[in-house]
Amino acid sequence: MANRVTIVDAMAGDRTIRRFRLRVRGVVQGVGFRPFAFALARKMGLSGFVLNDNAGVLIEVEGFGADAFARAVKTDAPPLSRIDTIEAHEIDTNGLTGFEIRESVGGKSATRIGADAATCRDCLDELFDPESRFFHYPFVNCTHCGPRLTITRRLPYDRAQTSMAGFVMCPACRADYENPLNRRFHAEPVACPACGPKLSHSVAEIAQAIRAGQIIALKGIGGFHLLCDAENENAIATLRRRKARDEKPFAVMLRDVAAAHRFAEITDAETALLESPAHPVVLAASQGNLPHGIAPGLTRVGVMLAYAPVHHLLLAALEEGSNVPVLVATSANPGGEPLVASNEDAHRRLSGIADLIVTHDRDIVVRADDSVMQIVAQAPAYLRRARGYVPEPVDLGSDGPSVIALGSDLKNTICVTRGREAYLSQHIGGLDNAEAIRFQRETVAHLCSILDVTPDYAACDLHPDFRSVRLAEGLDLPLIRVQHHVAHIAAVVAEHHLAGPVTGLALDGHGYGPGGTIWGGERIDLDGADWTHKGGLRPLPLAGGDKAAREPWRMGIGALYQAGREDLARALFASHPMAEKLISLFGLGMRVGLTSSMGRLFDAAAAIAGVRLVQHYEGQAAMEFEAMVTAPEVLADGYSLTGGQLDFMPLLIHLAENHVTVAESANLFHGTLIAGLAEWIAATRSPLDQGRVVLSGGCIMNRVLAEGLVNRLEAQGLTVFLPRAAPANDGGIALGQVAFARHVIEKHKLHSEEIETCA
Amino acid sequence: LSHGAGGRAMGQLIEDIFHTAFDNDWLRAGNDQSAFTVPAGRMVMTTDGYVVSPLFFPGGNIGSLAVHGTINDVAMSGAKPLYLSASFIIEEGFPLADLAKIADTMGAASREAGVPIITGDTKVVERGKADGVFISTAGVGILPEGIDMRSNAARSGDCVIVSGSIGDHGVAVMSKRENLEFDTDILSDSAALHTLTAAMVAVGGTSIRLMRDPTRGGIAATLNEIAHQSSVGFRIDEEKIPLKPEVAAACEFLGLDPLNVANEGKLVAVVAPEAADAVLAAMLAHPLGQEAALIGHVVEDPHCFVQMETSFGGGRIVDWLSGEQLPRIC
Ligand SMILES: [Fe+3]
Ligand SMILES: [Mg+2]
Ligand SMILES: [Zn+2]
Ligand SMILES: [Zn+2]
């Protein structure tokens, strides 16, 4: 991601003694940058110094080849660093010898805390080296790896401000910590068996319990996992029963990509993602040899590599001969509440689920779930952004006031801007329980604290009953309310720095539209603070409100009834006990809301196609429908376009009328959707959009749909922008809210004292 | 029903309808006001407007609501309701027969409750200026010695009692309005609760911190209001909340949360823990409290959350809605 590197041209190689001052900006603190510069200068025989200040890292080097030093800083930078810019200036030599690491100077205002990183290669070697003092030590880490955000209470990032504060370094660790040539120089969480945290149980005990088919709650980096043997059907069934998680897919954890190949087909792009320092869960094509209970009805499985030393130790202990151990590793979040992170909480909330609760004595200060990603159109896309990525900022491309956005009520994240950076929080989750709302408030306070900002404005959704909106209203800041789908599109516009008008398409579940309309499949032109609704999908009856989102049969009947095809509704849904009742109530004139949602259109089609009538988790029908696609096909005349409205009713009727098989329906539905949407864009796009189309909303996580649309639109000569820096679903709403709010503030030249609200 | 010129005879006709239906000494006196003797002690007074659609629903009509609602507003303070007034805004063209039906229902409700309507007024307005009939009622009552309930009185540890099954009224109204026919008839619970509150106050006295009738917005709105006014939280237990199976089924079908659905003959009481059993027993012994239940407790909570333990063991936040239940699922 290193970009905008500028090194002055004057630095061509020569053999004179010269002195340069280098200003390095980006993620350069707490990632081993100073010892790296120290070691590099020593190796090159240069004198000078390096220090951290509030703008990043400042280096002065003097000697023969000082110019080569600047180039090496760029090319050999430490693995967890991210250099945004290097500016170099030649200055007068001073003839002094020696290179030193100087004390940090200045405030904390521009410093960053790094994201948590998976155990590095060097630490892994020590973990399994009987000669090392870190042999089998479950908390080994160095400047290239280990916890960061999840242990940090406040700035500046040093040990006293982390949950390592209570652990006094032993002489060996202290020596490493203070030695600029050591990999652990200023690694704040440095620890060893003599001085550091300890696990409550031995790895052998945990492994024994796994082998016995038990469910383990294991404290990790950002919270507790629930683990069990992924090849033991009974253990999986027990976990599902105890967690009351009927069918939602579980992720599996393995030692490395080679091990993962046994269960999943993993592409090069997926390998790179799996092995990146964040170690996210990556959705990959399943080999079909894991028990059905892992991801029922799906053809892809969430794979993640061991990322904490304890994971490696456990998997090693479970390895017997050629057997490759594979574990179910799912977040310990009972009843849909946020992740369990404290020892007390684990004993209180997990005792009914886990047979063995394994804790340790290093507190998790900040909760962070595992991030979940997939490759879409050859590049990584988030499904959930948390551990390993937070708190890396999204560059907004320009400066502006500090805005805090409270996001959406589902898959909630919040976002705070500082200068040109937008800090999107980790996944907080659905705000339907007190624990999640507390987590949100905690995150607001923590994020502002580690960024050292006090926001001047707040932004939130339009929905009058969103809890996130209530919290925003309680912040006592000028409040900018941003329409849900405008926010979805604005998030993508912001991360790609798209200036001027764009053609936007939000394919989503539900968002509060102007005047209380129920939106979710919208064509929106966006240009800074100005947006125009160019049309929506044909609105379908939403019988039972949110109930209809859980029960696709309601959408199926509603759509067919609306089309005047009660006969088809009766014939297709005869098996559902309430179908007749719903049809007769429609007949009696029951008033129902209408929704232009793409998510609900998916539900209607999935119900009509016979995928499922009732969902056990959000998006289940659509995910299973996607999983059935083999080769998308277009149904000629499957859609119609009138004014700005796109209508797929002919497709739904076709699926209902012609006894199309489920697999064939999946192909026809996806193919026709892609064709219709592409034609819609062509017909409604503004000539001013410079050929730029932005796709966003939860349905863009459907890979078949997203890639199909990208291909079609690119074939029309358009450039397509997808959500890359934040999830396409509501996890990205807060980013869109801050970005849109900054445009509103700028457009109206608002001063925080001057406005109450505006929209 | 006509309005304006030539309306004099009509005006008289309307007066007669109400006088006959409400018949009592005060109205017979024919004054524009009524005098009554004020007992010693503190009085309470309330007023409320009734605008419902439809006007007639299973188990009642706008007239019974207007009487019961105002009696209940007085009764929730712990007071004994004494007298009511009633004022009507009638849309031109409204059928006289319907008006007579509403008046008869009101008269019967007031007689049954023993709280007479002692003064009133009627106005006929042009078509379109009203929707059928609007009723405004006021009520006065007298507080027993020492009773002084306040909305900010709930404290951590107190018990929450509901007098019976929730959601009946709202679902009954909706089934009529939406033309919904369910397998069983769901009737509105519209009722005057003052004899129930009197029985509760007799055993609970000042241990009853406060009472509310959870009308519009249901018990969710009521508990949230109390939580904010008292700066406390609530923890209630889904399984303990009385709910008729047919109401549950209708809510499930319509996608409604019964906690947000209106009641017209139920009350929620917050009672000090030491008196909870006695108050509950008194309620169970009363015809309008036979299904009363202790549904939860007041807890300390700086965020004033109303939380419900669900059958799955989760803790769901019970919301206060701005209006209708809007979809949220994205
Ligand atoms: Fe959304
Ligand atoms: Mg009132
Ligand atoms: Zn390391
Ligand atoms: Zn040590």
Automatic annotation (TrEMBL), chain A:
- Active-site residue list: 34, 52
User: What keywords sit in the KW lines?
Assistant: Hydrolase, Ligase, Metal-binding, Zinc, Zinc-finger
Q: In which pathway does it act?
A: Protein modification; [NiFe] hydrogenase maturation
Which positions fall inside the Acylphosphatase-like domain? 19-103
Q: What is its EC number?
A: 6.2.-.-
- InterPro entries registered for this protein in UniProt: Acylphosphatase-like_dom, Acylphosphatase-like_dom_sf, Acylphosphatase_CS, Carbamoyltrans_HypF-like, Carbamoyltransferase_HypF, DHBP_synth_RibB-like_a/b_dom, HypF_C, HypF_C_2
Q: Which Gene3D superfamilies match?
A: 3.30.110.120, 3.30.420.360, 3.30.420.40, 3.90.870.50
Annotated catalysed reactions? an acyl phosphate + H2O = a carboxylate + phosphate + H(+); C-terminal L-cysteinyl-[HypE protein] + carbamoyl phosphate + ATP + H2O = C-terminal S-carboxamide-L-cysteinyl-[HypE protein] + AMP + phosphate + diphosphate + H(+)
Which Pfam family, an example, fits this chain?
A: Acylphosphatase
Every YrdC-like domain range: 200-388
Tell me the enzyme class. Answer: ligase
Tell me which family the UniProt entry assigns to this protein: Belongs to the carbamoyltransferase HypF family.
Supply the name of the protein. Answer: Carbamoyltransferase HypF
What organism is recorded for this protein?
Rhizobium aquaticum
